[in-house]
Design goal:
- By secondary structure, the protein is α/β, with parallel strands linked by helices.
- The chain contains 17 helices and eight strands.
- The chain has a domain of about 150 residues.
- The chain has a five-stranded mixed sheet with strand order 1-2-3-6-5. It has a three-stranded antiparallel sheet with strand order 4-8-7.
- Helix 11 crosses helix 12 and helix 11 packs across helix 17.
- The longest helix has about 30 residues.
- About 5% of the residues have low confidence.
- The chain binds protoporphyrin IX containing FE (HEM).
- One of its GO terms (molecular function) is monooxygenase activity.
- It is a peripheral membrane protein.
- This is Putative cytochrome.
């Protein structure tokens, strides 16, 4: 009885239900892609993007389970969402909260809470604070190179480059966050290395950027304890408060009544996580491309040396004057945007399609690989980022850090970290392809929260 009457009825009802749900985009005559596994992977987004370009529509659609998601395709729409009409798209599309203490992370906050937190935290990452923090990064780079020289030895060594860039990034973050007190930064480094290298990750994978909420509980506890101890230590002895690390900057805000202790812990965690893989992978991708093209590598090294000569030393000013190195970094962030998509939530109805509560995806990776803006997008070509070439491209065609009032808060710091790490590596070593180096880098299949190479990147490092 069940098999002959109820089962076909159930199947028909299910079919009608999903047909009705998935007809959303069809009714609006917008090209769309139904994800194969309920939640869209980057391949689904790319395929909807391609379809929209073919049909010359300004948006495309997809679904998260059965909920329609808008994909912004035309750069005017991207600009409108991220910049011009930002007040209608202030929040990101997820509101998952971890059961750990790391609750008030800037990434997840929406509306007034976000605005309030962002304006307080912006002062920590201002240009003045960058000038204070940059010598710390120089110092970390130097120390790291000494260790690396021993590892590489006199005859050079084949190395999984991401292991190196992850260790260097952890050192930089540890020094910037915890400053001069070795005990705390060593504990931090041990913690990250233990849980993250070589394969294990500190965090699980989630939606775009929601990875910060997927923190494993034991690590959240350890991190909270470590930051608490650092705060107590810094508050208890006056000479430890030398004012040149992020904990010091946050304690200044706390003293002025502008940041609670929980917020300080959350943000310390947020800075550590936001900068870790993004910086490490960007460095790896850049070194890979420079190893594959020794002429570009030479040019980058020359640009570094010239800037140092011009400014009489390795200074804040010289770092800002390494034009060609900057072009290499930007081309890396173009070809390998480590955050391949960002998103916004529609907070009030906008035209007839964008209804309050809908998620809008900004497909950074697709935009950066669109031949309309970047001919032969698979070729690594830093000359795309001369001032003249940049001026030829429309707004929002290069968005590795997002754009508008809700762009990456750490973008200036990230650029300094990348420039300094690359400078110190290029001044001390050369990078070469070897037998184990893949001719083409494949990305991990499930491009979700962040772009990462499918396999280890082996390069031969030789001391200069
Ligand atoms: C290569 C390095 C990095 C890349 C590519 C990157 C990229 C991004 C992107 C794409 C967003 C979303 C922007 C948007 O939705 O418009 C973001 C947000 C954010 N990033 Fe970064 N990031 C990097 C490094 C860092 C670092 C080092 C920090 C911290 C010190 C940081 C802190 C943040 C924060 C706090 C947000 C949330 C901003 C908000 O919601 O107001 N990022 N990042």
């Amino acid at each position: 009885m069940f098999i002959f009457i109820l089962l076909p009825l159930l199947i028909t009802l299910c079919y009608l239900y999903f047909y009705a749900k998935f007809s959303f985009w069809r009714d609006f005559e917008v090209p769309y892609c139904v994800p194969r596994f309920l939640v869209p992977k980057y391949a689904d987004i790319q395929s909807a993007y391609n379809e929209a370009k073919r049909e010359e529509t300004v948006i495309a659609g997809t679904f998260r389970v059965t909920r329609p998601i808008v994909i912004a395709v035309h750069l005017d729409v991207v600009n409108q969402i991220l910049v011009k009409d930002f007040q209608n798209f202030q929040s990101r599309s997820y509101h998952q909260y971890s059961n750990s203490e790391a609750l008030s992370l800037l990434h997840q906050a929406g509306g007034d809470k976000w605005q309030n937190l962002r304006s307080r935290l912006s002062s920590i990452l201002s240009s003045e604070k960058m000038k204070i923090i940059v010598p710390t990064i120089f110092h970390t780079g130097d120390g790291f190179n000494k260790q690396l020289s021993t590892l590489v030895g006199e005859r050079g060594k084949i190395i999984d480059i991401t292991n190196i860039t992850k260790r260097l990034t952890v050192d930089i973050i540890g020094d910037c966050l915890f400053g001069s007190k070795d005990e705390f930064k060593n504990e931090f480094n041990k913690m990250v290395i233990k849980y993250s290298l070589p394969e294990k990750e500190i965090i699980g994978s989630g939606g775009y950027l929601s990875r910060v909420t997927m923190l494993k509980e034991n690590i959240a506890k350890k991190f909270t304890k470590l930051v608490n101890e650092t705060i107590n230590y810094k508050e208890s002895c006056t000479n430890s408060h030398n004012g040149n690390d992020f904990m010091d900057f946050m304690l200044e805000l706390k003293k002025e009544g502008n940041l609670s202790e929980t917020e300080a812990i959350s943000q310390a965690f947020c800075f550590a996580v936001a900068g870790f893989k993004s910086i490490a992978y960007t460095l790896s991708y850049c070194l890979y491309e420079l190893a594959m093209n020794s002429e570009l590598q030479k040019q980058a090294r020359v640009s570094v040396k010239e800037a140092i000569l011009k400014h009489n030393g390795y200074t804040y000013e010289s770092i800002l004057d390494m034009k060609y190195l900057d072009q290499c970094i930007k081309e890396t962030l173009r070809k390998y945007p480590v955050v391949p998509a960002t998103s916004r939530l529609v907070t009030s109805d906008f035209y007839c399609i964008l209804k309050r509560g809908m998620q809008v995806l900004i497909p950074t990776h697709s935009i950066h690989h669109d031949p309309e803006y970047y001919p032969k997008p698979e070729i690594f070509d830093p000359s795309r980022f001369t001032d003249e070439e940049i001026a030829k491209r429309p707004p929002c065609s290069f968005i590795p850090f997002g754009d508008g009032p809700r762009n990456c808060l750490g973008n200036k710091l990230a650029m300094f970290q990348l420039r300094i790490a690359l400078t110190s590596l290029l001044l001390n070593f050369t990078f070469h392809k070897c037998e184990q180096t893949a001719e083409k880098l494949l990305q991990a299949k499930s491009i979700g929260s962040s772009l990462k190479p499918e396999k280890s990147i082996y390069l031969k490092m030789v001391k200069l």
